[in-house]
Write a structure and sequence with these properties.
It is built from two helices and five strands, in the order E-H-H-E-E-E-E. A five-stranded mixed β-sheet has the order 1-5-4-3-2. By secondary structure, it is α+β, with helices and mostly antiparallel strands. Helices cover 27% and strands 31% of the residues. The chain has one domain: RelE-like (YaeB-like fold, 2-Layer Sandwich).
Length: 85
């Protein structure tokens, strides 16, 4: 089981999110990141400042993994429409 370490930046971002989103993200972090080999919504990133991302609904949890999981940032993904491009 991996140890999960939240950065101060990630904790501040969590405080700004709606309660339902916080519950979903916290639950997904505990379930998905406890064992990265069994994680379904985790993707390794290339050419990105953070090594991995966890997809939780409309949010992306960016993290690094060395000895422990270090959650670095949480970002909301905006819906794309015909005016996006």
């Amino acid at each position: 089981m991996n140890r999960i370490n939240w950065t101060e930046k990630a904790m501040r971002q969590m405080l700004k999110l709606p309660r339902e989103a916080v519950k979903a993200i916290a639950g997904a972090v505990v379930i998905e990141l406890a064992d990265l080999r069994a994680a379904r919504n985790v993707k390794r990133l290339m050419n990105h400042p953070y090594a991995y991302r966890l997809r939780v609904g409309d949010y992306r949890v960016f993290f690094d993994f060395a000895v422990e999981v270090r959650i670095v940032s949480i970002e909301e993904v905006k819906k794309r429409d015909e005016q996006t491009y």
